[in-house]
Amino acid sequence: MSQSGNNDKQRDEETGGAALQPRLFDEVARGRHGPTLSSVGPLGPHSRLPVARYWYRRHLEQAQHPANTISSYLYDLSIFEHVVGLKPIDEVTSRDVAHYLGEANSRSTRKRRLTSVSGFFKWLVNSARMLEKDPTESFYPDHIPLKTPRPLFPTEQDALMHSARADSTRSAIMCWLMLNLGLSRGEVLQLRRDHLDLADPETPLVYVFYDNARWRDKERKLQATSELIELYHAFEREYEPQDKLFVMLPQSVNKMTERVARNAGISKHVSPQTLRDTYSVERAKAGAGEEELLSLLGLADDPRNRMSVRRYIKLASPAVNAPLTGEVKEP
């Protein structure tokens, strides 16, 4: 789920520690709660939707999906139950799915809802083996075009880093990591002291690790410059990090980036993703192709990510009206 958390999603409350004791009430729509089960029995083909949803949650938790992803899926499924009723899972039809998707007020909401309900029924068919037919199989997500990145120009990059240094030593090193190494906001927040190898002052190394085994393909080693050494030591003296370098909420990183950009006099909207986009375009200008960009950014080699890096390559290419090499202009 991308850049995940928005699109009017609500998060379910945590069920608590007891495996067979879910909460007494469930959010079936924004601001509306309905009764659920006081106890949960085993999952079967005739189980009602709340029972199946409970065991699906247990499956997602055991698979170590991110908490916000689980909450988003389960919120969408609670909406599905509200729309179609508390049916047994073997009585849900494609018409029910169409009704549920038809109430979405935007293409992005419809796509998110389809992702949630499709994953649920695929699990019931393929993993739990409770159903023989998937009522979502005939539905396909609407294509949502990728937004064109708006990277910072060189003068804006300089102004941003000058502003970040004036803001705080923490802002300076965080902005530098996103702007010069292409780390995502989440990757910056996961950094620990022992992820930085500062033994060589000229070419320090930054290791991007993931605790969840599902994301190990995104791990990578990035070479930095001596500027990182200077920024890190200044940050270390002021903040004295013990393990995690940056103890902040994701929203606080957004606000910090916006504040630094505003103080730098940059009028365009600037987010952590803007800095990562800027890094990507600069690497493409230096000659990085699709494969290298996927590797540098820790992206899986899939069609959508290929489309993403092609946007960077396009933005890095010469102007369409630039003179051809060797072309002689008429006087």
Brief summary of the model shown:
By secondary structure, the chain is mainly alpha-helical. Helix content is 48%, strand content 6%. The protein is globular and about 65 Å long.
Radius of gyration: 24 Å
The geometry reads as: globular
Helix-residue proportion: 40-55%
Number of helices: 12
Which residues sit in consecutive blocks of at least 5 with pLDDT less than 50?
A: 1-37
Instruction: Give me the oligomer status.
Output: single chain
Please tell me the CATH architecture of the largest domain by its name. Answer: Orthogonal Bundle
Structural class: mainly alpha
Main beta-sheet strand count, sense and barrel state: 3 strands, antiparallel
Following the backbone from N to C, one meets helices and strands in this order, namely EEHHHHHHHEEEHHHHH
* DSSP, total strands: 5
